[in-house]
Design goal:
Layout lengths: L6 E12 L2 E13 L4 E5 L6 H8 L7 E6 L2 E4 L7 H11 E4 L11 H10 L6 H11 L14 H13 L5 E5 L7 H16 L3 E5 L3 H5 L3 E6 L2 E2 L2
Parallel strand pairs: 3-8, 3-9, 6-7, 7-8
Antiparallel strand pairs: 1-2, 1-4, 4-5, 9-10
Helix pairs in contact: 3-5, 4-5
This protein binds adenosine-5'-triphosphate and magnesium ion.
């Protein structure tokens, strides 16, 4: 059995420069997550949560530190990965739920969900049906995003993140605009994913959701506090 951690981050640092000012958005974060583990990241606005999630998801490169995902050293190793190699890791390992949903307004719910697969293989209509059923949005498949409630959009964003069978689901505020019943539903869905061995790393302001995680990382000023 491969016991290697799915995510292993060491001393991740991200420095942004704004004119002469330096912002250490993430300031030396280390953590690990195994298969089927759920990690919640909490912390005040501007504390570096999205920046950290983007680095873990290989969408943004750290200023320093090392990261391996799925047993591959992505940052901080002997050799830098090519953009092509990073692209493969992004699409095969990760599903992303962004803080803003980024649904394409001119595509239907079903087309939005099929989008991640469309770039490199035939869209899997059956799989789209499965994830729509899982998220309870089958009835909305032909709607445009503009015709959905905030909660429905959020569920479409989760469905889209699952279409490529990711090993890791990264979710930035997956229940941001949901009421407590819908939040509970998303919590159960995420828990179900971990039972299938999917690692979930999420940013949330929702304490109920955060407490349901296996591990809680509290971030303040780019550093882990608990
Ligand atoms: N592209 C960027 N250029 C410059 N500064 C940035 C950039 N992205 C983020 N920052 C800064 O880095 C810090 C952390 O931002 P980040 O978006 O990670 O916070 P957050 O914890 O996700 O906040 P929120 O809860 O509001 O989403 C903030 O001070 C932010 O202004
Ligand atoms: Mg954020």
């Amino acid at each position: 059995m491969n016991t290697a951690k799915v995510i292993s981050a060491r001393d991740l640092v991200k420095v942004y420069r704004r004119g002469s000012e330096e912002v250490r958005a993430v300031d030396g974060v280390s953590f690990e997550a195994g298969a089927g583990e759920m990690v919640a990241i909490i912390g005040p606005s501007g504390s570096g949560k999205t920046t950290l999630l983007n680095m873990i998801g290989c969408l943004d490169n750290p200023s320093s530190g090392s990261l391996s995902v799925g047993g591959r050293q992505v940052f901080g190793g002997q050799k830098e990965l090519s953009e092509r190699e990073l692209t493969v890791i992004r699409r095969e390992l990760f599903g992303y739920v962004f803080q803003k949903f980024y649904l394409i307004p001119t595509l239907t719910v079903e087309e939005n969900i099929l989008l991640p697969g469309a770039f490199y293989r035939a869209p899997a209509a059956r799989q789209a049906r499965d994830v729509m059923a899982l998220l309870g949005i089958e009835q909305r498949r032909s709607h445009l995003p503009g015709q959905l409630s905030g909660g429905e959009m959020q569920r479409v964003a989760v469905a889209r993140a699952l279409i490529n069978n990711p090993k890791v689901l990264l979710a930035d505020e997956p229940t941001g605009s949901l009421d407590s019943r819908r939040t509970g539903e998303i919590k159960e869905i995420l828990r179900g994913l971990t039972k299938q061995g999917i690692t979930v790393v999420m940013v949330t302001h929702n304490l109920e959701l955060a407490r349901s995680a296996d591990r809680l990382l509290e971030i303040r000023d780019g550093k882990i506090h608990a």
